[in-house]
Specification:
This protein is mainly alpha-helical and 321 residues long. It has one domain (2-315). Helices cover 75% and strands 0% of the residues. It is built from 14 helices and no strands.
Length: 321
């Protein structure tokens, strides 16, 4: 444990003194503040002289600004933080010929990879908590609403989900750093994975859904089950992307009025007549129950990525030259 602590402290010092990390942190912070200010100003104007609705504080994180909401921004650009922290975690040490010096110290070899991952995880946690606290303070000034206990609980769960989401990309980047000798190659591989999972999976899901469950507009109006099957196929394929898992989970957690992750809901006459009974927000426990499979999936793929990195690193030969 002492060896892990030593490596972790060394990596934390490197992260917080790194120019690229500081630039990325301030970039994400600046965009988050601008988005929160635009959303908060809009909410303040819309709710002026009007009774504040329930969970209005959470709207700071879910309402879109000029381009996107805060959770959409973290879903798209948060992985870059994990990639920046991990793409050269091991091969940088190899290039500088300091890895052999690390493992020659009186610490276990697995402490090196464990300490690097732990340092990245701590850095991600500090960064996300800081951004959420700053945005919450800005929201208090703009809309003048103090969050309740359930809103604070939902924000805490949102932070946990976000940490695991970015930690997945940290694990991916460390895996490439272990697998590739070149720093540039590992960086390009990590960015390629980010582009693939964030953008191409969504497009590929639509194309594959059209091929597997084609929908004819004329037939779909007579048989809505075709449209449902097509949408279910697209959704199942899109769940391959961690971005989809994260976006659906955080949207349900931060928006209590969302009752399901389904994008298409077909209701009959009786459902439409009784829709008013669904207008009340979901309790926190039910929201967590809905997204529990998403949470388990995010945690699982994060642990699998780190476990793979750990196994590959432990089997590699460390040379002094």
């Amino acid at each position: 444990m002492k060896g892990i602590t030593t490596i972790c402290r060394k990596e934390l010092a490197d992260h917080f003194s790194s120019t690229r990390f500081i630039l990325l942190f301030y970039l994400i912070l600046m965009v988050s503040l601008v988005t929160a200010f635009i959303v908060g100003s809009g909410l303040r104007d819309e709710l002026k002289d009007v009774a504040k609705p329930t969970f209005v504080f959470l709207m700071l994180f879910t309402s879109p600004g000029k381009l996107f909401s805060l959770i959409q921004f973290i879903a798209i650009f948060g992985p870059l933080l994990g990639i920046v922290l991990g793409f050269d975690a091991v091969n940088r040490e190899r290039s500088a010929r300091t890895l052999s010096k690390l493992v020659s110290q009186p610490i276990y070899r697995d402490s090196v990879i464990n300490g690097k991952f732990l340092a990245g995880l701590i850095t991600i946690s500090i960064m996300l908590v800081s951004i959420v606290l700053i945005i919450s303070g800005l929201g208090l000034l703009l809309i003048g609403v103090v969050p309740g206990p359930e809103e604070i609980s939902r924000l805490f769960i949102y932070l946990v989900i976000s940490i695991f989401y970015i930690a997945f990309w940290l694990g991916i980047s460390i895996l490439f750093s272990v697998g590739f000798r070149s720093v540039a190659t590992s960086a390009l591989a990590a960015i390629a994975c980010w582009i693939f999972f964030s953008f191409f999976v969504a497009m590929g899901a639509s194309v594959m859904a059209d091929a597997i469950s084609p929908v004819d507009q004329a037939r779909a109006s007579l048989n809505p089950e075709l449209l449902i099957k097509h949408e279910q196929t697209r959704k199942i394929i899109s769940l391959v992307s961690p971005m989809t898992l994260y976006s659906e989970a955080t949207t349900i957690i931060l928006d209590p009025l969302r009752k399901t992750t389904q994008s298409i809901l077909l209701m009959g006459p009786m459902e439409r007549l009784s829709i008013s009974r669904f207008q009340s927000p979901l309790p926190l426990s039910e929201s967590v129950y809905i997204v529990f499979p998403h949470l388990i999936s995010l945690m699982a793929i994060t642990l699998v990525c780190f476990a793979t990195s750990y196994t590959v690193f432990m089997r590699q030969e460390v040379r002094s030259t």
